[in-house]
Automatic annotation (TrEMBL):
Official protein name in the record: Phasin domain-containing protein
Amino acid composition bias (Basic and acidic residues), ranges on this chain: 14-30
Phasin domain location: 80-176
Disordered: annotated segments: 1-45
Any Pfam family the entry gives: Phasin_2
Amino acid sequence: MASEKDAQTIARDTAAKGRNVAEDTTRRMAETAAETTQRGADTASDMMGKATQVAGQVAGQTTDQLNRMMGLSAQAQGEVAQQARENMDVMTQCGSVLMDGMQSIMREWMGFAQEAMARNAEGINAMMRSRSVQDLYAAQSSMVKDEMELLLNRSVKVSELSAKTANDAVRRLNARAEGAARHVRRSA
C-alpha cells in the first residue's frame, strides 16, 4: 500500500513539474513566435521601403545617364522613362506580393503558437489525470509526439507558402520581361 501511495505521489509531483515545464515552454514559444513575427514584419517593411526608394533613385539616374550618353530624342526619352516607370511598378507589385506572403507566413506561425498552447494544456491535463508513473510517461510522450507533429505540419505549410510567394513574384517579373521584349521587337 505504501509503495502505491509513493508511486502516486511521485506521479503527481512529476505531473506538476511537467505541467510547469510545459506551461513555461509554451509561454516562451508564444513569446518567441510573437517577437519573431513582429521583427519579420518590421524588417520586411523596412526592406520594401528602402528597396523601392533605391530602385526609384537608380531608375532615375540610369535614365538620365542613358539619355545624356546616347543623345536620345524626346520621344525615345519618353519611352525610356515609361519603361522605367513600368519597371518600378513591377518592383512595387513584387514587393507587395512578398509582403502578403510574409504576412501569411507570420499568421501561420502565430496559429502554430496558439494551437501548441492549446495542445499543451490538453497534454498537461492528461498528465494530471495520470494514476501511475506509466500513465504519466505515456501522456507526456503523447504530448511531445503531438507537438512535433504539429511543428512539422506547420513547417510544411510555411514552406509551401514561401514557394507560392516566390513563384508569384517571379511570374510578375517574367511577365514584365516578356512585355519589354515584345516592345523592343515592335520598335526594331
